[in-house]
Amino acid sequence: MVDADVYINVQGDEPLARREHLEVLLQLMADKTVEVGTLKTPCVAEDIGNPNAVKVVTALDGRALYFSRATVPFGRDRSGNVTYFKHLGFYAYRKAALDAFCTWPESQLERSERLEQLRFLDHGVSIHVAETPFDTIGVDTEDDLQRVEKILVSRG
Predict the structure, then answer these.
(1) What pLDDT is attached to residue 60?
(2) What does the DSSP 8-state code read for residue 14?
(3) Domains of the chain, first to last
């Protein structure tokens, strides 16, 4: 492994990645106490119920409480006053956190949701989440691919 202060992982299914995503992620990691960082963006209506658009719920201090393919938080009162955030496939790690991750077996929550970041939460490692206004579409299905193609064509 190459020595670095921070290791960045941009998921391969993020064709709409922007420089701004990395800038926000690196700003988050400027705090040396942050071991793992990632990004969220307000969830558009079409992605709220989409299990391929992973949702994230964060504490007031920006730490991730949970990631899910389900619609979380659940709007029990159906008031429409719930704000949903979509998790984006951008990660930053300190070496110690990444090394520890590699030694842990897949966790039950990780296996259930098929979300590797839950392994950190299961082991008590905080994931700090920064917000960006720049949404992306992770390409997991043919429909996702068509959405991305439409965006790229509209950009010329």
Answers:
(1) 96
(2) -
(3) 7-155 (3.90.550.10)
